[in-house]
Model the fold of this input.
Amino acid sequence: MTASAPILDAHLHVWSDGAAPFPYTTGNEPPAELRKEATVEKLLGEMDKAGVQGALIVQPINHKFDHSYVTRCLTQHPTRFKGMCLLDPSGSAADAVAQLEALHGAGYVGVRFNPGLWPEGRGMDDEVGRAAYKRAGELGMVVGFMCFKGLDLHIEAVTALVEAQPTTKAVIDHFGFFRQDSQAREDIWKEVIGLAQYPHVHVKLSAFFRVSADPYPYQDLWPRVRELVDAFGSQRLLYGSDFPFVQQQCGYLKSSQALSVVRWGGEDSLLTAKEYQDVTRGTFEGLFGAFPE
Done:
């Protein structure tokens, strides 16, 4: 991998325009202004303009557990996309494992655990979550934790899972969502940093706009990026844009340049050249595999 190796984007979404054969699930329609802005055709155009070689598509809530649109994207563009499916935790442990095995067979390399989808009164470390987390590791699938309301609300479940299955690789989305109600929560940030003790836990430097109080290039996040590198090592961190939502913020092109804007490779840089390469490419390949030439 050379210094000029193109970026890989570890976090984005695509969805259809809502028409058959890929309708949205009821109650999960996207914002009107993004309804037709998240198709795979739109994304590929943005990636090409930004020089982004490949990306991980995370199954969007708009299609919920119907993976047919994303599966088609993976099938039609195998040199550009890999997929992370969405776990349905509403059934039995056997149901969840069977679902995971089927989606792995369809080419998915990861699975998202969204605690908001668990039935009321149950957490991600229930029987279903434990079975799916274990099976994901056996299949070589990475588990992504999407703790939208803050990692602190789910740290006990996350810790229970990662301690029970140290061979399953895990990723914390969007800096652990440490910014809540327009405030940086240092208690949540402490929980994020604390996960560095588990060698198989990684963190996505993704959706900068969701956790920054500053406009692009999100200067208030620079010290936190450095703190994460120092705690986890760059080989356990990876960049993600959060397309298409980033289109309502700085835009896809600027997002892809966010880390390079702060400079890298020099003595006074935020990241060394090696660290920058890890975050924008190397860690992605280590977790999800390289793209075919």
Observations:
- The first helix runs from residue 40 to 50.
- The longest strand covers residues 52-58.
- Strands lie at 7-12, 52-58, 81-86, 108-113, 142-145, 170-172, 179-180, 183-184, 201-206, 237-240.
